[in-house]
Design a protein that fits this description.
heterodimer; A: 257 residues; alpha/beta; Rossmann fold; seven-stranded mixed β-sheet; four-stranded antiparallel β-sheet; B: 380 residues; alpha+beta; ten-stranded mixed β-sheet; 12 helices; 10 strands; 52% helix; elongated
Chain lengths: 257, 380
């Protein structure tokens, strides 16, 4: 059964709220006993739909752990994560995997394209995961890749594309199945300044086109101008939130407790 | 996703070819050696197969195989003929002989003495001549391999003279006989004539060949013969398996072939297991990305198993084809391989073995895929 039908149920569930994702009191530690290391210490986070949210902070502050939890790839020790109206902590096994396949899109720092597939096939993978045919997946991916300026590179493999081109293929892959939440982990880290700006511009244009929520984990201050909201993390906590939707509003500062 | 799995497999051509080679080599070795093994040990009973007219063999109770016959008294033939359920019984003589070839060299061979009247005991396929050509006093038939060894390079013709144990014999027929375990040179003469070529002691009869009345139970007839005469009576099939069993238990052949076949399996497992593991390890990050994107573990398992089965199928096909070609070529061009073939049971067994190796190798490699943390794709 195609997973797309499940999308309608989730969409209707959260249509009443403008928040694509909400985290409340998220705690996560690794190790046990004396080697136990707390990575997230009670994180509260809200990701509005139709906006770009940046998650920034020094290395080791817990950004990757937080988005892994948001994506359902890690289970927090405490707290609640609601994505598109669904409590992720209550989803287990195959249902969690299916939810991810249907509603989430990913852009990775290292692109993680399948080397055996060309650009068109790579971009269509999420549709194949959902059970669509290769021909349908390729056609849908082709349209996106053309919009991303890769119309002449459809049959090229990852090792034949530049970093920027590979990341654009990754963006197409993240959007091809029309997810409502796109999670980007350092999307510009492996790119030069110009390529990074191009990628962010395209991401914003296409991602926000469908009123999607986009969360971007980054160290790159050059892309702050693309954000509607910025969360700054340190030592496993949100220490500052800047809401750039309305620049007139002062930013909310979170005090450490 | 199955198309993705196959593209991932074929995308790494070096490993794919290495995997196919590993399976093909292992399949070839296992099938070729097993086929030769089967061909070799079944030669222990090939003389019995060459005499399909008889379905019962009667012999001294101490006889264990064709090569260790003990002479029976001539009167035993009449006693056997008196058993209920028998259609006929004829004498059969077996002895070794020495023959001088056209080059002056000596070869050892087998001399079989056939019933003077019916000539039962000779293979039914004649390459040259016929049964009637064996009626003249000095007439003998030889196996095709015997003719080739005695007169190498010459086309079979009637009238060739040779010496069997220093006595004159005239080749009047050539038969297509199955090679035997101890010798491929076989000579056939009438019973009375054979006794002259290979004189024995007081008792001369090696075996008694018999045929049951159609519709009677073979085992019942055998039991009746034993009860009446005290001799051992076995069906042709029983005696054939006894001869094969003797070779299995009293020679190093099974161990030798088992060692080679075992090595073939180990090499196959090693190559396939190693390369499949490498293929998955090198693609582990991509599998993690697929898991992060939303591919279930069950789908990944099926993808890897599909890759394993494709490799196994292609490699098995190539290996089996090579083994079959070997037997076809060797059987047609080398008389030493005459009668060797690839039994379907061996091919089926090696298919099951290959499949098991592929599945086990895949499952072993899959552990890494199943337990890889998809969050690893978020780390640089």
């Amino acid at each position: 059964m195609l997973l797309a039908t499940k999308k309608a149920h989730a969409a209707s569930a959260h249509s009443s709220s403008n928040l694509a994702a909400v985290c409340r009191g998220i705690e996560k530690s690794f190790g046990s006993g004396e080697t136990r290391v707390p990575v997230l210490r009670g994180v509260d986070l809200e990701i509005p739909a139709g906006q770009i949210t940046l998650l920034m902070g020094p290395s080791g502050c817990g950004k990757t752990t937080l988005i892994s939890s948001l994506a359902g790839l890690l289970t927090p020790d405490a707290g609640r994560i609601e994505v598109l109206g669904t409590d992720l902590t209550r989803l287990k096994g195959g249902k969690l995997v299916d939810f991810r396949a249907t509603h989430l899109g990913f852009v990775f720092q290292q692109f993680n394209l399948l080397t055996a597939l060309n650009a068109e096939e790579n971009a269509g993978v999420p549709l194949l995961v959902q059970g669509y045919s290769m021909s349908h997946a390729r056609k849908t991916a082709r349209d996106l890749l053309v919009r991303l300026g890769l119309g002449k590179h459809l049959d090229k493999h990852a090792n034949q594309l530049s970093g920027g081109q590979q990341q654009r293929v990754a963006i197409a892959r993240a959007l091809v199945h029309s997810p409502q939440l796109v999670i980007c982990d350092e999307p510009t880290a492996a790119l030069d300044a110009e390529a990074g700006q191009t990628v962010m511009k395209l991401l914003c244009e296409l991602a926000l086109d469908g009123k999607r929520a986009v969360i971007v984990v980054t160290h790159d201050h050059r892309i702050e101008s693309f954000a509607h909201r910025i969360y700054r993390m340190a030592d496993g906590k949100i220490v500052r939130m800047e809401n750039r939707v309305d620049s007139q509003q002062p930013s909310r500062e979170h005090t450490e407790s | 996703m199955y198309q993705v799995a196959l593209k991932m497999l074929f995308g790494d051509l070096a490993k794919y070819l290495g995997l196919v080679f590993g399976v093909a080599f292992s399949t070839l070795l296992v099938n070729q050696q097993a086929g030769i093994f089967v061909g070799l040990i079944t030669r222990g009973g090939s003389l019995i197969q060459d005499i399909p007219e008889a379905d019962i063999w009667v012999m001294d109770p101490g006889v264990k195989n064709l090569d260790t016959s003990f002479p029976l008294r001539d009167t035993e033939l009449a006693r056997v003929r008196g058993a209920t359920g028998l259609d006929w019984a004829v004498p059969f003589f077996k002895s070794t002989v020495t023959v001088r070839t056209a080059n002056g060299e000596l070869e050892g061979g087998l001399l079989l003495g056939l019933d003077d009247t019916t000539l039962i005991g000779i293979p039914q396929k004649f390459v040259l001549g016929s049964l009637e050509d064996l009626r003249p006093p000095d007439a003998v038939a030889v196996s095709a391999e015997a003719y080739r060894r005695i007169w190498p390079g010459e086309k079979p013709v009637q009238g060739k003279v040779l010496e069997l144990n220093d006595r004159r014999a005239v080749v009047m027929a050539v038969v297509d006989a199955r090679p035997q375990f101890t010798s491929s040179l076989t000579f056939y003469a009438r019973y009375s004539r054979a006794l002259m070529y290979a004189p024995t002691g007081r008792n001369k009869l090696s075996f008694i060949l018999a045929k049951s009345v159609p519709g009677t139970d073979l085992q019942t007839v055998c039991d009746e013969i034993h009860r009446r005469t005290g001799l051992k009576a076995l069906t042709s099939e029983q005696f054939r398996w006894k001869c094969i069993e003797y070779i299995l238990k009293n020679t190093g052949i099974p161990v030798s072939f088992a060692a080679v076949i075992g090595l073939g399996i180990i090499v196959g497992v090693a190559i396939v297991g190693l390369l499949l593991n490498l293929l998955i390890l090198e693609n582990l990050r991509q599998y993690a990305a697929l898991k992060a994107i939303g591919t279930r573990n069950s789908k990944l398992v099926k993808m890897v198993l599909l890759q394993a089965l494709v490799v196994g199928g292609v490699g098995y096909g190539i290996g089996l084809g090579a083994a079959a070609s070997f037997f076809e070529f060797a059987g047609n061009n080398d008389p030493n391989f005459k009668g060797f073939y690839l039994p379907w049971q061996v091919a089926a067994g090696s298919a099951a073995l290959d499949g098991s190796i592929m599945i086990l190798s895949a499952l072993f490699s899959l552990r890494k895929v199943l337990f890889v943390d998809p969050a690893v794709v978020f780390r640089g």
